[in-house]
Amino acid sequence: MHITMIGSGYVGLVSGVCFADFGHDVICVDKDAGKIEALRKGEIPIFEPGLEQLVADNVRAGRLSFSTDVETSVAASDVVFIAVGTPSRRGDGHADLSYVYAAAREIAEHVKGFTVIVTKSTVPVGTGDEVERIIRETNPDADVAVVSNPEFLREGAAIEDFKRPDRIVIGLNDDRARGVMTEVYRPLYLNQAPLLFTARRTSELIKYAANAFLAMKITFINEMADLCEKVGANVQEVSRGIGLDGRIGSKFLHAGPGYGGSCFPKDTLALAKTAQDYDSPVRLIETTISINDNRKRAMGRKVIAAMGGDIRGKTVAVLGLTFKPNTDDMRDSPAISIIQALQDAGASVTGYDPEGMDNARQLIDNIAYADDAYGAARGADALVIITEWNQFRALDFGRLKSIMKAPVLVDLRNIYRHDEVTKHGFAYTSVGRPMGG
Ligand code: NAD
Questions:
Q1: How far is CA 298 from the centre of its chain?
Q2: Going by C-beta distance under 8 Å and a sequence separation of 6 or more, which residues neighbour residue 30?
Q3: What local confidence, expressed as pLDDT, does residue 434 receive?
Q4: 161 C-alpha vs ligand 1 centroid, how far in Å?
Q5: Which ligand 1 atom is nearest residue 11's CA?
Q6: 122 lines ligand 1 (CB under 6 A)
Q7: Whose alpha carbon is nearest atom 22 of ligand 1?
Q8: pLDDT of residue 190
Q9: pLDDT by residue (tens digit) across 404-419?
């Protein structure tokens, strides 16, 4: 199969290289010429474990190339994926579909012969209809089938997720696309990954329903954590106790500072907006959004309380800035709100993140960036773990105590036990474990 991937970000690049690895001929296109130039030199613009090697292997094998030229690649393709961003629209929280529609117009101008156009970006119900309308309006002779194929990969484990998905959802209203999509995913199909064919609108909704459910699950356990603190229970044991029930499942039940990232915040909001437009509000999700928004700043207050209530003139060291480990993605990271809350209360902040600092510099003002955890902690009045990178899981507390101004640890990811921290003379605060855990 000849495949064009429009948009070579986290999803486009990972999907493109994995399709190439399956044996297809793939051209990854992006309008960002700098990104394409870098990719051609073998430089990967994002941090994603295993990606650099897989790209190099498939470029060497001649199955993967990079281009800014939509015309040539689309004209030569059987299948064109749209994997451009769909951020929240400024002002009203609906998904901004301008990149998707612009891509649809460009594709329409250049398609030759029967072509399957696949929306991989996360898009609200009905977007496929509009993409189809735009294509027919731009090029009435275009012979296309417009398909929805949402992506479920997680940053940080993206290649593994793409190659071993729990399911592949394909929404189509034109049966000619069915055989093509089966062929595209044949290697995974052989590995028993279920291919779930639905109508296009159903497929579009499945993606939002999945993300909203996961966001709700995280928010549920976060509220349980708050209750645990009040009633003297341990949220990790509550998680385990409920997660072992097969109807509930143990994943996404880790209490923490609230969900962030490039998907959950914008997708929950977009779903809530779509549902309101259809006069069928999803109140559980509206509430989830509001609880999570409040939570991030509440975590700032938790740090302030752990430091005695007044942090004016004090220094807080923050470990982990990205929304989760193993990515450099800073989009909607809880660290942004937490640091803002600490600065608003008069503290100075020093931060360290293994991969996210370049992106963080563009989003977080007025903090000092350190070269490692100990550099951040030097002279600090408290140390706050926001993201559970592996390198923060075995900190040398003796060393930290000797370089910090005050031995205070706030562990917003519950990666330590109370006794292993307090035995070094630290005051320890975690989430939902009033006895320290
Ligand atoms: P991204 O911002 O990393 O990448 C989007 C890329 O598209 C950018 O490089 C941009 O330059 C390019 N682009 C925009 N318009 C273009 C055009 N007309 N022609 C060519 N290139 C164009 O975004 P992402 O994180 O990869 O997300 C893409 C979509 O996938 C979103 O809808 C997102 O919700 C969804 N998604 C993301 C993830 C994730 O973990 N990041 C997971 C599942 C689904």
A1: 22
A2: 6, 7, 8, 9, 12, 36, 66, 68
A3: 83
A4: 17
A5: 26
A6: yes
A7: 7
A8: 77
A9: 999 999 999 999 999 9
> What average pLDDT is seen over the chain?
97
Tokens of 113: 């012969």
User: What's the angle, vertex CA 280, arms to CA 274 and CA 286, rounded to 5?
Assistant: 65
Q: For the chain, percent helix, then strand, then coil, each to nearest 5?
A: 45, 15, 40
Per DSSP, 145 falls in state: E
User: What is the residue with the minimal CA distance to atom 34 of ligand 1?
Assistant: 122
* Pocket flag, ligand 1, residue 101 (CB < 6 Å): no
Structure ipTM: 0.99
Atom of ligand 1 nearest to the CA of 122: 32
Mutate to test the pocket of ligand 1, among 4, 18, 30, 101 (most ligand atoms within 8 A of CB): 30
- DSSP of 232-250, one letter per residue? T--HHHHHHHHHTSTTT-S
Q: Which segments within 270-426 are labelled E, that is strand?
A: 315-319, 348-352, 368-369, 382-385, 408-411
Query: Would you say the CB of residue 169 lies under 6 angstroms from ligand 1?
Result: no
Domain 201-437: CATH class, spelled out: alpha beta
For residues 398 and 129, what is the distance between their CA atoms, to the nearest angstrom? 61
Residue range 347-380, pLDDT digits in tens: 999 999 999 999 999 999 899 999 999 999 999 9
Under DSSP, is residue 116 helix (H, G, I), strand (E, B) or coil? strand
The ligand 1 atom nearest the CA atom of 29: 20
Binding site membership of 31 for ligand 1 (Cβ less than 6 Å): yes
Shortest-distance Cα residue to atom 20 of ligand 1: 30
Q: What is the pLDDT of residue 365?
A: 86
Q: Which of 18, 84, 159, 322 to mutate to test the pocket of ligand 1 (most atoms within 8 A of CB)?
A: 84
Q: Note if 28 is an active site residue.
A: no
Could you report how far apart the first and last alpha carbons of the chain are, in Å? 53
pLDDT of residue 436: 52
Which residue out of 29, 100, 262 has the highest number of ligand 1 atoms within 8 Å of its CB and is therefore the one to mutate?
262
For 2-198, the fitting CATH number among 3.40.50.1440, 3.40.50.720, 2.130.10.10, 1.25.40.10 is 3.40.50.720
Closest CA to 177 of 112, 118, 103: 118
Q: In what order do the strands lie in the sheet with 315-319?
A: 368-369, 348-352, 315-319, 382-385, 408-411, 427-429
Residue ranges per domain, the chain? 2-198, 201-437
Atom of ligand 1 nearest to the CA of 46: 3
| pLDDT < 50: residue spans in the chain | none
- Residue 206 token pair: 């499945």
